[in-house]
Amino acid sequence: MKDFKGKVAFITGGASGAGLGQAKVFSEAGCKVVIADIRQDHLDEAMAYFKPKKAEVHAIKLDITDRKAYAAAADEVERVYGSPPQLLINTAGVNTFGPAEASTFEDFDWVMGVCLGAVINGMVTFVPRMIKTGKGGHIAATSSWGGFMGFANDAPYAAAKAAVNNLMESYYLALKPYGIGVSVLCPTNIRSNIAEAIYTRPSSLEATGYKADEETVDFLRTIHAQGMDPVELAGWLKRGIENEQLYILPFSNAEQMLKENFQRVLDFSTPEGTRRQDELAKKRTAETARNKDPYQTTDSGWGKASADLTWVNEAARAKRKTR
Ligand SMILES: NC(=O)c1ccc[n+]([C@@H]2O[C@H](COP(=O)([O-])OP(=O)(O)OC[C@H]3O[C@@H](n4cnc5c(N)ncnc54)[C@H](O)[C@@H]3O)[C@@H](O)[C@H]2O)c1
Fold it and tell me: Which of 2, 68, 120, 299 is the most buried if burial means most Cβ atoms within 10 Å?
């Protein structure tokens, strides 16, 4: 897709962070934008930005894990703008950190429900509607660099993002005959509000194995304050869509990063390689100790198990500081 003028763009999580950056960029490119978000305060703030600009932006309060509500939102898009979106951007996501071994079913259900399940909801809701219009289009998902590897402290999120990368590749192949392009954006740190994700965790899924509270939210705010500007990131997405790229890797050294990543996969498939990876992990541990890596030196309790899980061996985990 190269011409965005008059196209309807539906952006989940479009009221904050990466999604809001996308709403700004595609609105400026001439799209009629729908921002769908679970947080009314985020929607209100975003609309306060767009209204004075007289931009064609429509806000829908939506929990994207709710399939019935999702279908109703899709109907609303057609009512408001006269057609299904030609540009669907699945961006809403949540995260919470803690030892994989402390994870509860609820930790998995919440994070994977939003980060993977709701992307599936977006695809199943909109793909048939988009195909039926016969006008082609483009679909993107905001995944994460974290989808390319495992994380001791972020298992549900990494698993969801790995699945999203894979899912988008399947749709990329499947939707080509319909003239619908598919992309997956894989950023690292973004200047966003994702530190506050736990505020949207449903009460039915509140049982967590992690320490996740105001202290860890405050700590994460300082990390994400250093992330990429969402409008800059949306620029990478727009160029990737224009070029019909499946993978959009918003870094200057993406090739080197991917080579190291796939070397890791090769290494972990042989005993010698596993030893090499162990050595690399030791080096990284020493480096993070020297450089005072904020993730490792925080006293907020970030990445730790909930205090009642006394069987999680934090002392042993601290000695081996892996990602
Ligand atoms: N922040 C980062 O460092 C980072 C890095 C890589 C990838 N990402 C991904 O970027 C995407 C956007 O996140 P962000 O960092 O801009 O965070 P953000 O919190 O600023 O924006 C996400 C928005 O999604 C909304 N949301 C959460 N659950 C929802 C639900 N069930 N239904 C509808 N809306 C919901 C939130 O209310 C929020 O407005 C996510 O998929 C995230 O995983 C973020």
Answer: 120
The answer to whether 151 and 323 have CB atoms below 8 angstroms apart is yes
Average pLDDT over residues 74-87: 98
Check pocket membership of 160 for ligand 1, CB cut-off 6 A.
no
Mind listing the pLDDT tens digit for each residue in 184-216? 999 999 999 999 999 999 999 999 999 999 999
Residue owning the nearest CA to atom 30 of ligand 1: 63
pTM of the model: 0.97
Which is the closest atom of ligand 1 to the Cα of 189? 3
Cα 220 to middle of ligand 1, angstroms? 14
pLDDT tens digits for 260-307?
Answer: 999 999 999 999 999 999 999 888 878 877 777 777 667 899 999 999
Strand, coil or helix: what is 27? helix
Nearest atom (ligand 1) to Cα of 191: 1
